[in-house]
Design a protein that fits this description.
Elements lengths: L1 H17 L3 H26 L7 E2 L18 E7 L5 E7 L2 E8 L4 H12 L2 H14 L3 E4 L19 H4 L4 E8 L5 H11 L1 H10 L11
Helix pairs in contact: 1-2, 2-6, 4-7
């Protein structure tokens, strides 16, 4: 059963978090392919048959550029970016499955478009999209990096959409704790909940002409 396989992956990550070392990897890497990667790819193919369009993240941290100094990521994730600039993300870890969609990182050119859209009449459209996503069961959150602590330059601190104007990314997500039954259908439902926000972002923000930060 899928839920059983995903729970085995969760247990693998729990062990990795407790001993995030090269020695652990040497002992446990033979189980990674069967207990983590295989069930994750099975889930990914169940929610999107076009798996070639997804980037699946490697198990190792590049400690030269990461604040995380453990040698292993404590999750497996995959990302798909569409031509319109929106994306979908899928993650499996010790807690369960996480799915999200939107634009978690806004490049400088996208950030300018995001704020401009929120400041004019298109901002009302985002408010409706956000409400629709939340009504469908999605959770709206800022992306990365952290939002501004204050208002962007030139924006009043009491602007009705100031909370969103501080964001540097936006996504709709949902988390499914272990054991995850009907994982594919529930992941699809999370992505479906995010579609109104993704559609607004595709129109109001669009793709970046700049290189995208690494996740």
């Amino acid at each position: 059963m899928m839920s059983h396989n995903l729970a085995a992956a969760g247990a693998w990550f729990a062990r990795a978090a407790a001993d995030n070392s090269r020695e652990f990897w040497s002992r446990e890497k033979h189980r990674y392919a069967d207990e983590v990667r295989a069930p994750f790819l099975t889930l990914l193919s169940a929610v999107d048959a076009d798996t070639a369009e997804w980037k699946v993240y490697r198990p190792h941290h590049d400690t030269r550029f990461s604040a995380e100094k453990g040698v292993l990521k404590t999750f497996i994730g995959a990302l798909r970016i569409e031509p319109d600039g929106t994306g979908r993300y899928l993650q499996l870890d010790a807690r369960g499955v996480l799915a999200s969609s939107g634009m978690p990182y806004l490049a400088p050119d996208q950030l300018a478009q995001w704020r401009a859209a929120l400041l004019d009449e298109r901002g009302e459209g985002f408010a409706h999209a956000a409400s629709a996503a939340q009504a469908a069961g999605g959770t709206l959150k800022s992306g990365y990096p952290e939002p501004l602590a204050t208002a962007p330059r030139g924006v009043a601190r009491d602007h009705p959409r100031i909370a969103w104007l501080r964001w540097k990314g936006v996504e709709v997500f949902g988390r499914l704790p272990h054991p995850v039954d009907d994982a594919a259908a529930r992941v699809a439902a999370i992505w479906s909940a995010g579609e109104p926000v993704a559609a607004w972002l595709a129109t109001a923000v669009g793709p970046s002409a700049m290189e995208r930060p690494r996740r």
